[in-house]
Amino acid sequence: xxxxxxxxxxxxxxxxxxALKQERADWQLTFVQSEAQALATLxxxxxxxxxxxxxxxxxxxxxxxxxxxxxxxxxxxxxxPGDMEDxxxxxxxxxxHQFLGRPCTAESVxxxxxxxxxxxxxxxxxxxxxxxxxxxxxxAAPKTFQALSAAIARPNAHTADITGIxxxxxAVAVKTLQIVNTAFFRRSAxxxxxxxxxxxxxxxxxxxxxxxxxVFDALDASPPxxxxxxxxxxxxxxxxxxxxxxxxxxRLAEEGFTAALMLDIGQAVLALADPTQFGHMIATARAQNxxxxxxxxxxxxxxxxxxxxxxxxxxxxxxxxxxxxxxxHRPIRAQHAEMRVLAAVHVADVLVDGTDPSGKLLxxxxxxxxxxxxxxxxxxxxxxxxxxxxxxAEHALAL
Length: 399
Hints:
Layout: E1 2-6, H1 14-23, E2 28-32, H2 35-44, E3 49-53, E4 55-56, E5 59-60, H3 61-71, E6 76-80, H4 86-92, E7 98-99, H5 106-118, H6 120-123, H7 126-133, H8 143-153, H9 159-167, H10 170-180, H11 194-201, H12 203-220, H13 223-228, H14 232-247, H15 253-262, H16 265-273, H17 275-288, H18 292-300, H19 304-314, H20 319-326, H21 339-353, H22 367-370, H23 373-381, H24 390-398
Parallel strand pairs: 1-2, 1-3, 3-6, 6-7
Antiparallel strand pairs: 4-5
């Protein structure tokens, strides 16, 4: 692995250098102090990742990340935590793959870089990036998502600030009210206020709503693509609710909701890229009674899980989410994503996409994945066994 560290303060990475050398003696680490030095280093030799501060007196982190993305798109772009101004954070959001949390240790840097490299085949797939690049909508991370992320990251964030952001985006406001008034939230009375909906839904879920709203807006703006995926929004929301219900009140519930909501974002990308070809793909899948993801590579060279994961990676979303979306049909392939989230998302996906509602659930699941003890415990906790059929499982969850 070759990793480039950029900070204008001499010696600021010294402890990181020592710790990383102890952990990974075979890694090549380079340390520079300016944007010019960083770009010259990348131009002269290939690197796997770049780690930089986001804001400092002599270094414009977002500008550096933007130039690296343009000139060296295959380099993983990481931001170190620090006292970031809102403006710098918003500028960095679209061009950073990952923001490292506090405290930032050598172990956390190692984990993020190695996890990203496991996904490199997807995140750096030229065919997928070219496909995404042909779109007239979707490539950039939604502005409302960026604004919400920045506001939520502030320690003194107020509900009024969040409400203002949501209210300025009609699609997100409508989607938030729609979700909070569904039966899944078990409200005795409808919620009509954006502020009340924001409070009830929760901040993390709001970010996932902002992402999904951008996808469905893009489909609405393209009638041919929208007609091909008329049920995508309803199915995505249903799948997200089921995953959240499976995970209960745990800290993973919102992560599962977001991942399940994003599972088929790649279908939207394919449909928007070439509606005619996508229509032929659907007809072929139906005629041969095959899942879409098995037929898509014949028409596009790639399948929607990888396309969706690549787009989320380009948006800078957490790598756990990217991996869950990438491998939702075969969770056994995931190396780092949270086991319970993978299990919940996979079960929810099978329940929603099951072509035979009267069929048994267990045979449709990834048996190799659920052979793992922790995954088996999830099935036991959710009362899923050989006798569980598709219809009764979803009905039991809805109750």
